[in-house]
C-alpha cells in the first residue's frame, strides 16, 4: 500500500492535458466566485457604477470563454481514468456539482449584462457625484440626464442617438437576412440593449416595456448554445417587438 506524504502536493492529474482541463474548471469556478463578490459589493454600495460596469462586462466575457472550454472537455465515455474532471452540460450543473450557492452571480450570468444595463441605472461612464462644484465654486446640477444621470452635451447626446439607431437597424437587418443562430444574434442584441440604455431610453413607461422585451430575448438567447437557432415563429415575433420598441423609442425622443 502506497504511503502519502503530507508535505507533497496532491495532484489531480498525470498528464498535461488533464492538468489543463482541471485548470479550466478552476478558472470557471474562480470567475463565478469573483462575480458574486462584485455583485454583492455593488448592491451594498462598495463599488461605484463607473467601476462596476467595466469589471462586470469583463468577467461576463471571460466566463463565456471559460464555459466553452469546460463544455468542450471530453465526455466520460472517452475517458478511462478518473484523472479528468467530470463532464458538465452547463452552468447550473457546474454550480450544483461544486455546491456553489451564489444566487447573485447565477442571476448575472443568466442575464448576461451588468446590472447597470439591466435596470437602466445612471450613466456608468460618468463617476462624478450629483450637484458637483467646478473649480470656480459654481454649483452644477448633473441630474438632468437620462435615467437621472449626468446631462450629456449636445454632441454626446447626438452620438448616443446615432449609435442606438444604428444598433436597431443592424439587428433588424440581421433578422431580415435570416440569421437565426445565437452566436450571430446575441452579440448584436447585447449591443442594442447597451446602446438603448446609454441613450436614456427616451421617456415614459412605453420605453421601459420595450427594454423589458429586449432583455427577455437577451436572457433567452443567453441560455442557448452558440450553435442553437431560433425558429421562424420566434424570429418573426422578435422582429415585431424590436421594430415596435424602435418606433416607440424614436417617438419618445421628441419628449426628452
UniProtKB/TrEMBL annotation:
Keywords carried by this UniProt record: Endosome, Protein transport, Transport
Membrane topology designation: Peripheral membrane protein
Gene Ontology annotations of biological process type: protein transport to vacuole involved in ubiquitin-dependent protein catabolic process via the multivesicular body sorting pathway
Coiled coil: none
Ranges of Low complexity composition bias in the record: 130-144
The keyword Transport is annotated on this UniProt entry: yes
GO cellular component term of the entry, any: late endosome membrane
Family, as annotated: Belongs to the VPS28 family.
Protein name: Vacuolar protein sorting-associated protein 28
The organism's taxonomic lineage, starting at the top: Eukaryota, Fungi, Dikarya, Basidiomycota, Ustilaginomycotina
